[in-house]
Amino acid sequence: MHRPVLVREVLAALALKPGVTVIDGTVGAGGHAAKIAAAVGPSGRVVGVDRDSLMLRHAAEALASYPWATVHQASHSELRTALDDAGVDRADAVLLDLGLSSDQLADETRGFAFQLGDGRGGGPLDLRFDVRHGRPAADLLVEADEAELTRLFTEYGEHPRAAAIAAEIVRRRDVAPIRFADELAALVEAVAPAGGGSHPATRIFQALRIAVNDELGHVERTLADVLPAVLKPGGRAAILTFHSLEDRLVKRAFVEANGWRPLAKKPVTATPSETRLNPRARSAKLRAALRTTA
């Protein structure tokens, strides 16, 4: 079951009150959105957006008691279209939770669940949030040359054995392409054995997921163009990140771009008690800022 992270901190950063309009641009399973909907009440509006149709089904169930909350399939970089569909001009607050939901991690049909540990193997190596667009990760592993794979694993996964893993993938695909999540996980573990902590393939899967979903491109477009256009002056944006690549983009946008006033110098992180209850919160960072111009 998905447990949203930093709920109290997110609600405080958004400064919610009855009657306001809030966008949850990565609604996921609806955990944050349900809390937001309860806070803004029937006189408010909540517009939930997600690229993943599976997550939208979960969100619709979580928000069933709040008819003033609606869900729409789109990327957060397409918020304008989602707001038009919802009949909303601009919002008082926006939340983006850029992490992978535990419900997605449990989905064996797209390869997110390479550590199921129950013999199911993690399923086809797809990794797309929206299977209607883009190419599966398995196709990327077949089509990209060794240099490109090394770059992806280095830049998006920050993996110390990126070159060795890329070389082994190219060697293996000459015999048979890698099509399933457990195959890739086993290959990475053979090249870079576990040394404690997370599975050695975690960063490789992260890199492929970022690549096939153009995650950083969507974040950059949202920060530069979308949030300024959909937030009212004085509105607040709160963004949860789970790895340094996204956090750097958010920090740079809030600190260096015109029209933002950060609400704190440093990101908010989870308390020890929350991380004990919800290990996903361990890597979460929350940054929030006030929109100071139109």
From TrEMBL:
Family: Belongs to the methyltransferase superfamily. RsmH family.
Top-level taxon in the UniProt lineage: Bacteria
Predominant subcellular localization, coarse grouping: cytoplasm
PANTHER family noted in UniProt: 12S RRNA N4-METHYLCYTIDINE METHYLTRANSFERASE, S-ADENOSYL-METHYLTRANSFERASE MRAW
Known role: Specifically methylates the N4 position of cytidine in position 1402 (C1402) of 16S rRNA.
Family annotation (InterPro entries): RsmH, SAM-dep_MeTrfase_MraW_recog, SAM-dependent_MTases_sf
Gene Ontology terms for molecular function: rRNA (cytosine-N4-)-methyltransferase activity
Organism in which the protein naturally occurs: Alienimonas californiensis
Claim: Glycoprotein is one of the keywords in the record: no
GO cellular component, one term: cytoplasm
E.C. no: 2.1.1.199
Subcellular locations according to the entry: Cytoplasm
UniProt keywords, alphabetically: Cytoplasm, Methyltransferase, rRNA processing, S-adenosyl-L-methionine, Transferase
Residues reported in the UniProt entry to bind S-adenosyl-L-methionine: G30, G31, H32, D50, H76, D97, Q104
Protein name according to UniProt: Ribosomal RNA small subunit methyltransferase H
Enzyme class: transferase
GO BP terms: rRNA base methylation
The encoding gene: rsmH
Chemical reaction(s) catalysed: cytidine(1402) in 16S rRNA + S-adenosyl-L-methionine = N(4)-methylcytidine(1402) in 16S rRNA + S-adenosyl-L-homocysteine + H(+)
